[in-house]
Amino acid sequence: AEYMGDTRLIPAANGADDKTFYYKIKGDYHRYVAEVSQQEKKQSADRAANAYMQATEFAGGLQPTSPLRLNVALNYGVLLYEILGARQQGLAITQQALADAQAAGFDRLQEQDKKETSFVLALLNDNVVLWEKELRP
Description:
Blueprint: H1 9-12, H2 15-36, H3 41-59, H4 67-83, H5 87-104, H6 111-135
Helix pairs in contact: 2-3, 2-4, 3-4, 4-5, 4-6, 5-6
């Protein structure tokens, strides 16, 4: 399954926000295909991983508390942990996003971003708690 954003959206994107967003959407698209299609699971999971890696690279230009940056880490961690079976790597990405956001603090966030950031941080934290429990010997 091809992602149509490759031909128009991603090439036209300007700035870290736009590029992060479109690569995240590309990763999400391929992750969903990997979840529902046995035929295309491996290829779509690899495409999702590549898109999330690119999104992560561009997200480095955003604040650690950016809801977009946190959502990239959340979804990339889920892909790695649940679909690709790279459990330690998925956990590590999720833990790092949490740690970076907590270290940066919420002082400079606008009210809407605080709500969204808090929501995504709670999801990241839930995954860390669950995955650490599952990975315990």
